Amino acid sequence: MKKYLLYGSERYALAILRPLQDAIRRRGGEAAWFFDGPGAADLVEGERLLDVRGVRDWKPDAVLTPGNHLPHFFPGVKVEVFHGFDAGKPRHIYIRGFFDLYCTTGPRDTAQFQALADKLGHFSVAQTGWPKLDPMFKRDALREIAGPLPPVRDPPVILYHSTFSPSWSAAETLYGEVRRLSRDGRWRWIVTFHPKMPAETVARYKALQNEHLRFAEDDNILDLFPQVDMMCSDTSSALSEFLLTGKPVVTFRNRRPGPQLIDIDQVDQFEPAIARALSRPPELMGAIAEFGLAIHPDRDGRSSERVLDAIDAFIAGGGRNRRPKPANLWRKLKLRRRIGYWGPARC
């Protein structure tokens, strides 16, 4: 029986890794969790939580995480499944020498990672799709992904989502416009933020709640996608997830704008940009479809299965890459201090 450790810290890891847990169990394997952050509080009955000693005694065949690092002293193949799509900075900044295998989401990322794998030699790459999206692509409410979009609601519903980084977030800049536009009833709003958004910003938006605006605290933003007709954002990676539904996105000063977005740089452009998005111009909708194929062409809801297949293939091929991983002693020391483990690196 194969054993897989699911490693995370924040709550968002649960939505990414739970589809993998389901796939592992369907195959007759065992899954367990290790958290070094607040996400452990959200595990439910039947989800097994281990401590460091428990992990080392359990000896998983693989350790999977959406984060940028994981404990190097845990047994098993180290696998990165990512915490989101490229939000405006090159993916290669995450190559830190912790992983044996990167499971990429689509051709765009695969090309970048494979070029680095060929150059560096200490990790492998497999294009699998993103496990977090498996439930979305299987869900009946999102069947429009494979066909025409349903008509825009009357009144239309807008999802407003912002990232937490002060240099990227538009939440404070657009607050006044969201406040104004959410009061006349022409459009309805659902607002949700990155879990690390400053508390004072969250409080300001929560105070806006009325019959036309709801502040959502759903753990999984994917659950909100079927409820809305478009998204407004900035440089959040969640906007790429939303574009896979085929619906339009308005962004404010996005770090990497493209034809798949309606990007604005002035507050007074916000309202007309929303109106344009809701009209669904053909050139925009075509660009959205093309973008989706580049970042995540698989729409079968079986990315988790492909991740497990990639791990099996890596282990069957010897479980090693052509070069050893870099020492990266400083990051490993910081990780040991964070977890509080000073024992040997090998079991």
Q: How are the SSEs placed, and which strands pair?
A:
Elements: E1 3-8, H1 12-26, E2 30-35, H2 52-58, E3 62-65, E4 77-80, E5 101-104, H3 107-120, E6 124-127, H4 134-138, E7 157-162, H5 175-181, E8 188-193, H6 199-206, E9 213-215, E10 230-233, H7 238-243, E11 249-252, E12 262-264, H8 270-279, H9 282-295, H10 303-316, H11 329-339
Parallel strand pairs: 1-2, 1-3, 3-4, 4-5, 5-6, 7-8, 7-10, 8-9, 10-11, 11-12
Helix pairs in contact: 1-10
β-strand percent reads 15-25%
Q: Rg from C-alpha positions?
A: 21 Å
Stretches with pLDDT under 50, minimum 5 residues? 87-92, 141-145
Envelope shape = globular
- Which class best fits the helix and strand makeup? alpha/beta
Q: Going across the major beta sheet, what is the strand order?
A: 2-1-3-4-5-6
Rounded mean pLDDT score? 91
Per DSSP, the total helix count is 11
The tally of beta strands, per DSSP, is: 12
Order of helices and strands: EHEHEEEHEHEHEHEEHEEHHHH
Largest sheet: 6 strands, parallel
Task: Summarize the structure in words.
There is one protein chain. With 347 residues, this protein is α/β, with parallel strands linked by helices. The protein has eleven helices and twelve strands. The chain has a six-stranded parallel beta sheet, sandwiched between helices. A six-stranded parallel beta sheet has the order 9-8-7-10-11-12. Strand 8, helix 6 and strand 9 form a beta-alpha-beta unit. Helix 1 packs across helix 10.
